[in-house]
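> call design_seq(struct)
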């Protein structure tokens, strides 16, 4: 069976392929971006994605794709934006950008397979597009893992708070059935 690759869905034109970059968001040693995304997707889609320090990942006019590491070579597409302005800042959000509406249906739903072997987190789309295999389109936007069974529950307070605040039904139903909760 043929693999379905990212551009089979996105259909980024040959003209725009050269002008498209990806940013891979992974654990930075302090904070797990996946937990941040579960609490507040904008934290990843703006603050992590459009962050600027010494290295600029994007330039005005480029299409920018945000991928978030899930586990085991699985990545979640969280947003696609066009960079509209570079800001004159360092160690802060360094770009203004607008979401590209035609891709909104994939935000938080498109799960890709990619084995990352490089250190850098900013890449050209062209260099990766033939390695980004579509493995799943979720029925709804990713908001966290399903309830894993009582014997596998190990949550921090912050994780539990996110589950309750987001009213994650599978988790809430299971936790309500426990007399101690």
């Amino acid at each position: 069976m043929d693999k379905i690759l990212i551009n089979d869905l996105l259909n980024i034109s040959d003209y725009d392929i050269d002008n498209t970059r990806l940013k891979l968001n992974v654990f930075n040693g302090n904070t797990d971006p996946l937990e941040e995304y579960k609490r507040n997707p904008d934290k990843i889609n703006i603050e992590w994605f459009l962050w600027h320090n010494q290295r600029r990942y994007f330039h005005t006019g480029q299409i920018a794709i945000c991928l978030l590491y899930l586990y085991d070579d699985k990545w979640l597409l969280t947003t696609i934006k066009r960079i509209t302005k570079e800001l004159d800042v360092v160690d802060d959000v360094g770009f203004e950008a607008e979401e590209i509406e035609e891709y909104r249906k994939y935000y938080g739903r498109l799960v890709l397979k990619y084995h990352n072997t490089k250190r850098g987190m900013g890449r050209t789309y062209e260099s990766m597009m033939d390695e980004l295999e579509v493995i799943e389109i979720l029925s709804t936007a990713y908001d966290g893992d399903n309830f894993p069974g009582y014997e596998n529950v190990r949550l921090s307070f912050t994780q539990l708070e996110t589950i309750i605040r987001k009213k994650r039904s599978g988790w809430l139903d299971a936790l309500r059935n426990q007399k101690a909760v």
